[in-house]
Amino acid sequence: MDKFELIFIPSPGLSHLIATVEATKLLLDRDPRLSVTVLTMQLPNDTAVDAYTTNFSASPRLTFSALPALPPHSKASIFYLIDSQITNVRDAIDQRRRDHRIAGIVVDMFCLKFVDVALEFCFPAYCFFTSGASTLGLFQYVLSLKFNEKKELSEFINSDEELPVPCFSLPVPAKVLPAAFVAGGPIADHFLNLLRRIPEMDGVVVNTFHEFESYAIDSMAGKNPRIYPVGPILDLTGVSKEDDVKRWLDDQPEKSVVFLCFGTNGSFSGEQVKEIALALENSGCRFLWSLRKPMSVEGKKMVVEYEDFGEVLPEGFLERTKGVGRVIGWVGQVGVLSHRAVGGFVSHCGWNSTLESVWFGVPMATFPLYAEQQLNAFYLVKELGMAEMIRLDYKTDFRGEEDEVEIVGAGEIEGAIRRLMTAEGGGVRVKVEEMGRKGRAALEIGGSSYKAQAMFIEDVIRNVG
């Protein structure tokens, strides 16, 4: 039996690495001829990647190879750090190809510069796109605006224009475009130029499933590069180990708790925290709130734990809501969303969180913060009717020091929570639960994602020189 190897290159940091590993598991389960090597990078002073790979269960068909660490550079962008690895990537692939039959290189959406290495060795190159098909289509539309129509994307800042994006059935408000694109600057230009490499790819593996994004996927059918919707790709092993939190949830009625969590990098100003707290208190809903603090270290934004929630919450809030709600720091999101007591999710609408909420049938209220989260919120609320809206266009990224930070009022937040957690939100809940069942079916034998995985593997082997 002929053996083939794929080399995956995720971007630095844990979230894209975990998504990459979960994707490789699906492919390895499908075909015994395949093996995978993952080339890992980590940011300076970040030990999470090494800890993850060290504790990963050994598999003869899944190998991790750490690229040499780069010296700390406080002002370097993530793109600089990635691009600085090109020689190390070339050396690692050159070494690997001597003893293995390489079927292709699969690069993360932020690592598209490594396509040059694949071309140098005459290997097929694929992209692993960790967001959804709608976002992929939106990126292609933005590239056309900038490079074909020569539009200045900055004209969409605070614009009321609605855009005819081909992968959406409804016009897309310019206000939900990723802030990085419309704000401009070196990082935005670098990312847009990276995305221009996608048409060179032999295919794009997308973390989605046909039933969830059928309009977008169908709009790209028959075009190059070919897309493979192989998901939902989820890490379902990250069950919360916080026994105290689990015990508290165990004591709550089914679907009675609204969970508030805003991702690894999500945080709010003290003023916004107080508005959220007031909304929760006035709603009367049971809640579990993962609350973390923003910090700035050497000009870089970070999120850390509060030593005392009393420093930011309204006076007496914890006492008044005792028995009804809990405020906590970081928590394993999958473990909470999978609990029977959780009936709603106030979320930043990151793609992983979106897929997790769908998988567990927990409807969302949208509070996007950065990256493509505003677009995800628009898709969930307007295209699918599968979420309640707090805001679609709230943004925290790419603001100057002089920019006034927008505050969403307690009344707006409270209204969305009430709709989410009462009978009024029943239609949304039914849609999410039904989509969760479709997501599971997509991965089963004969499902849409099962077929897409098989199609990808067949195309990979066909493209081997």
TrEMBL record:
GO molecular function, one term: UDP-glucosyltransferase activity
Pfam families with a match to the protein in the record: UDPGT
InterPro entries for this protein: UDP-glycosyltransf_plant, UDP_glucos_trans, UDP_glycos_trans_CS
Keywords for the protein's UniProt record, in alphabetical order: Glycosyltransferase, Transferase
The keyword Transferase appears for this protein: yes
Classification via SUPFAM superfamilies: UDP-Glycosyltransferase/glycogen phosphorylase
Group of enzyme by EC: transferase
Homology family: Belongs to the UDP-glycosyltransferase family.
Name of the protein this chain belongs to: Glycosyltransferase
Source organism: Salvia splendens (Scarlet sage)
Source taxonomy: Eukaryota, Viridiplantae, Streptophyta, Embryophyta, Tracheophyta
